Amino acid sequence: MTTTIPYTPAVEDRTASLPLRLMLAPAGTAPALLDGAWWPRSRDLTVELPALTAVLDPLWGRITRVTVNPTFWPVIPRKVPVDGHVVGVGWFKAEQDPHKLLLFSYTVGRWDLLVIPPETSPATAARLMTEAADPLGIRTASALMNAAEERRIAEETELSLVSVWDSEGGHGAGLPTSRSPARAVIAQVSDATEGI
Asked: Known Pfam families for this protein (predicted)?
């Protein structure tokens, strides 16, 4: 299943029903390190988990438990009421990748989702979601986030260098701004036939 990723501003009115930003590996593919990616709009599990479980419950069976790493979640509630049931929430600091959310269901098992930070740019989030949903993916959640950060730094460095290059005159730097016409050299050439 693939869900589209509409662009929405980082700060928005939570009263409006917003589409879930989620991309999952195709159904029936061999297990990879990640089963997809989730791009929540905030770091509030009480607000974000109900929408996520509403989409995943029909696909994967009732989600009963979720675990996170507390590194990027300021508040971790013990339980979150969702549509018709309660999801238990736990955390593991050393044992769980800080960029991953684990979802558990009694009927089917466990799924690992990359959690993309809410403040991530839409272009970067789209790339991360595509990579995390790739059934042949071999990168961990943190490896994907580190690669995205390295790419962001490289792009900023390149933009900075281009800006400096342009401000210093670009490829024409060091050349005179106006050229004076070439001087003609006039010399008297003797006629070779003279004197014969």
From this structure: DUF5994
DSSP letters along 119-170, please? TS-HHHHHHHHHHHT-TT----HHHHHHHHHHHHHHHHHHHHHHHHHHHTTG
Is residue 103 within 8 Å of residue 111, measured between CB atoms?
Answer: yes
pLDDT over 50 (residue 104): yes
Tokens of 12: 């928005």
* Sequence-ordered strand ranges (E) for 8-70: 22-24, 36-38, 63-68
| Token pair in block for residue 145 | 């986030």
| CA proximity to 49, closest of 6, 13, 88 | 88
Is the pTM higher than 0.90?
A: no
Q: Are 50 and 40 contacting, i.e. CB atoms less than 8 angstroms apart? A: no
Return the amino acid letter for 195.
G
Predicted pLDDT at 166: 62
Q: How many angstroms separate the CA atoms of 34 and 12, rounded?
A: 29
